[in-house]
């Protein structure tokens, strides 16, 4: 009966599974009874009003915060166990822009913890960093100082940093918040290509824009509702989003 027990069982597990998750900072409840299942290969856009809990949910999925109630599984593991299988692009660079460090070194940081303590010095790690830079079409920036880059270039480099760890899931927190629309389109075209081999969860304010790229939109304002994007245009999503905000407001 088990002769066909598929190896692929592993990959058929949800990429991310959030069940009945609640989280508070002190007395302040930020997330309440959140359920979200993301299957491998999906590209999910997480949208919602300011302070709706989006970054907090990402931090819980990344294992940077611990849920007080409910559970999270990432590729069948706890968030901490799965941390190296996720590539994360933070909302703002988590290093000073004037830090004297090259693009290549920033990207190599995405390998830390994978090999030895000096992992970024190993040839395999250097190759992975260069492959990642090549994939985001930024190999020509390798020797540049990180602080000298434009917003769009910096975003590509941060994406390369996340890819250097060869993740199975990519999580991005407002990756295009500080760049113009033309560059935003380039970044999303790149994400669409990456989505051919990676599951993507992306926070954005720009619902109309992301609706052209994502397979599903999840609206978060303390609680969460998900909507498919079949035949949903930007206007419809704005309506869903608006009605959700009003719906949640009734809870007070
Ligand atoms: N470390 C913290 N300690 C206390 N409160 C926090 C902390 N981090 C976030 N909060 C609060 O939790 C709420 C949710 O914040 P969060 O950053 O998750 O929202 P968000 O949806 O990502 O917001 P935005 O769209 O503005 O980035 C906010 O009221 C915020 O002030």
UniProtKB/TrEMBL annotation:
Q: Which SUPFAM superfamilies match?
A: P-loop containing nucleoside triphosphate hydrolases
Q: Recite the UniProt keywords alphabetically.
A: ATP-binding, Nucleotide-binding, Transport
Residue span, ABC transporter domain? 16-247
Q: Which Pfam families match?
A: ABC_tran (PF00005)
Q: Which Gene3D superfamilies match?
A: P-loop containing nucleotide triphosphate hydrolases (3.40.50.300)
InterPro entries registered for this protein in UniProt? AAA+_ATPase (IPR003593), ABC_transporter-like_ATP-bd (IPR003439), ABC_transporter-like_CS (IPR017871), Metal_Ion_Import_ABC (IPR050153), P-loop_NTPase (IPR027417)
Keyword Disulfide bond assigned: no
Q: Name one GO molecular function term.
A: ATP binding
Family assignment from sequence similarity: Belongs to the ABC transporter superfamily.
- The protein's name is Zinc transport system ATP-binding protein
Origin species: Thiobaca trueperi
